[in-house]
Amino acid sequence: MTDASPDPFGDLAAFRAVAADRLASFAHTTVPDAAAPRRAGVVLCAVEHGGVPSVILIRRAYQGRNAGQWGLPGGRQEDGETPEQAALRELGEEIGLVAAPGDVLGRLDDFPAMSGFAITPVVVVLDDPGPLVPSPDEVHSVHYTSLRTLADDDTPAWVPQPGGGHMLQMRLGPDWRVHAPTGAMLWQFREVVLLGRDARVADFVQPDWTRH
């Protein structure tokens, strides 16, 4: 007998079910407030693009903080907000997509960035996201990477560093290299949500230029 279950890499509803189950059993870590005076929320937003489930990434505008860097939609947490609320608000402000709290499937580990922010990644699935409306002040371009690409064995690369250790590169396409913090959050999403493994990322090496 063959397994007729939908492929979560090829079917958004199947991915939602698998992701919700895995995130429900994942004990995420939280950076204490005393260790993170600044906090931010970002969204790993899964949508259907070109007929396949994909995650949205952005290239930040070539001005201000993180100029030109690869990132996930998101930003600073304001007074009175939860990380989830900040992430969803920023998703709308940066690329014009509206997500409700019920669209959030769960969260991954807070990532302690060298910029001084503790970044909380939340996982969202949108069946009908509507048109993208990128903010030109914040977003240079919007890109998609398929779940299958994220799960591919050749996507993560570990680059030796002169002083020892290795730096992660998520190689998502030609000339498309994503480092920590964003690369670390994509890698944990891949390991925990897509592949069902336990994985932690707080100690991942970050390039010096991510301090700004």
From TrEMBL:
Residues 37-168 form the Nudix hydrolase domain. It holds the Pfam family NUDIX. Its cofactor is Mg(2+); Mn(2+). Gene3D superfamilies: Nucleoside Triphosphate Pyrophosphohydrolase. Keywords: Hydrolase, Magnesium, Manganese, Metal-binding. CDD domains: NUDIX_CoAse_Nudt7. Transmembrane segments: none annotated. The keyword Transmembrane helix does not apply. Belongs to the Nudix hydrolase family. This is Nudix hydrolase domain-containing protein. It comes from Actinomadura meridiana. The lineage of its organism: Bacteria, Bacillati, Actinomycetota, Actinomycetes, Streptosporangiales.
